[in-house]
């Protein structure tokens, strides 16, 4: 016997040394050959199996003698067959496997006896066949190893064990699933202890038995099936496989009828409708189990096959006939509904170059090793048939259209099936295992396990090697060499997830891995992980990718790694596996530092898992990359608002147990996102810094109360603010609470007013409903004037009140009792473009130049006071010379009187002064009520001029709104401008006209112009902030003055909300090109606007 050059010394150092490098390299090379369609040699081509069939025994005189191992196979089904039966008749999978294995063992030199119900006992090609009645217990106990096939009979097993008195071994070899009655006795610990070893045909089957019956793992081994030798050599290396595969396709079903034939027959009409001419050949019966036709319960199914168009019923055939038939079959169509523990039918189809479409069930993912299209199995057979038909058609067409890819796929598939010498390899692996059982009695430790690796390595028994590696790693989890070997073995076993997990572990142990150890199979492993053909959980597959990220992140495999991670993230989302989705997205985010979408996807997963801090941190990271892209869409903004609200609620629920570090992380993230959304982030920042748990809880209550207020839930806001009051610690707490209570009472009055107007206008109240409504308006107006009002609430309620006032005025002006509006004069209407003016000199220049050709008069209203009540210069009056060419068209109205009250009262008073400039206008002339930065398109004004008597009298132009820079646009239209005849403006009021438009009253004119607001840089921004009516925005800016100032400076320097926005700013903005959609005057003077800084930095206008 030639020595096996594998492991010559015991210990970890040996396994990590040169010889371990050799075994790793050889395993990697073998795996590469499988996937490059080259023959796979033994790792030790010169080694002999002779040492594994010889046993050493002590003679009476003290000498030693070697003898051949005596093996017995006992088939407890007692079927009538010999190894020659497979040549002439169908035979069950277990029995076929026993025949091929017995023949291969005999060829290897073992003494093999097959015990069953044969009617023709005797020697068959070196295998002795015996009838079970001629083999009493005393003879069965004489075998060195007795392998019992199939079931576990308790009494028989105990009797056999009792008869084995000289160290003989008793092995159970079963291909049943663990839920079958024939193996149920293994649940009895005494019965299970009888067996020296259990041999299974797949990892799935073994794990099922260990889980069900608590079997000792070290006694459970995997020795797989192989295709029949008749399937070897069907296609020489230079043969064109696809030329033998017909189109329209020929399908085959080769399993037993009860495993899915009914589903396939139900699918056939759909398959033939999609691919006319498709033929199904059914090679199925119970003859393999020696059940005669007159006792076969599936005769009706066979008759259905015979009646169906496109279906040919062949029945069970011997394997030489089946091999020849499958050579010209396009695909194995196997909608399996019975969990297979191995499936020789699939192995044989793979070896015959057939495409395989089947089920993700039992051991099929393991057997097909990524080469088949496997489907989930629906509970309903009809649903299964529909799904199977669709996928089968898709797979057939895909391979038809990819000739080169299909050729490569089928060659690799045939190599994986391993029909050439397959049972000889299995025999060598059996002998290796049995030799170990008969000769190895040492204590199990790392050294002994390393030594035992020699035998399975010699015969390429990857399952046994994998088991030994796992046992080594249980004893020594940091055994780097064992992890490296595990990588190669698991790759060869088509266990991609486990292989990558082992590779990641090896990397963490700082092992220097040469590219030759992993590059050859990395593509196959990543594909296997993405498809999930190894049936490993999603989370484990993602973890495997994360483990190899350091190895693949900087090289040619990074794109493949990202693609695989994306597929897993999609699968995890569909499966509702938030943890796997989060891990996959974070991996991609590491690889793609500028990808916004993947960070938001990760945030979505984190939110679903309740990790609100992480969700908001990911949102903040996306905002730092490109705030415009994040905030420009309503869906993304809504997502961020949802996460923020959920974080607030979660923080409140966990307030008492929240540590300082946790609070700092959560509230810092909340502040960043709130600021980006234009909300007040000062409370979150305070909560992040405070060490007082009570104060933190109070701040959280105030944050949630603010969100309730924005949602209109003021009763809940009041209750939360009541809880937030900290006696002695928060002097403003009662003020906030009382302001909220005042706002609640005002809101209730507004709701009452709304009801009066609705019911009254629809004739469901008395005739004095108008008086009631006006009285309520006066009362609410007086309440709004109280200094205790919150400025934000006052702004909201003022807008609602003015809307109701506008509605009532419009109802009076146009109702059934109102005088009709005057008709346009024959010569046509004049156009009065009316607006308030503050200091927007550049926009005024743009407006006048753009609209002068289509406007008769501009009514420019300029006040001596800001909306806030501060005295201001008359900017137009001071710069009148700049606009001299338009002097004949400009009607300058100066408002020098101040009505007093709060800011919105002044704003309304100044807009109402528009009517002072209409004294010379005819009653049918058209008035446009707007602000200086709201500019209609010239063609829209021309349409208004031409509007006849039969057209509407009130118009609501919708404008594109551009904020801060000319090329930053919000997604929704700006609705505030109104256009109507002079007479209607006089009846309703100039200020009320805008509130009619806001309510949707009037004929909408889409894309009617532009609202260029807050233009001119940071200084003009702050000047407007001090002057305009939204005083709540001023208050929140001042509450965080330094931070907000820094944010503004950053925003105007970059055009992006990288550090968030000040409360009240619009952040849902998108950069747009300055194109034909902009005013012609602006485009002509674009260079001037660029010079003035009105174009966002970093863009080319």
From TrEMBL:
Organism superkingdom: Bacteria
Q: Which GO cellular component terms are attached?
A: membrane
The record's section on Pfam families has:
Glyco_trans_1_4 (PF13692), Glyco_transf_17 (PF04724)
Q: Which organism is it from?
A: Niveispirillum lacus
Among CDD domains, the record links this protein to: GT4_PimA-like
Q: Name one GO molecular function term.
A: beta-1,4-mannosylglycoprotein 4-beta-N-acetylglucosaminyltransferase activity
Matching InterPro entries: Glyco_trans_17 (IPR006813), TPR-like_helical_dom_sf (IPR011990)
The identity of this protein, by name, is: Glycosyl transferase family 1 domain-containing protein
- Biological process GO terms, please? N-acetylglucosamine metabolic process
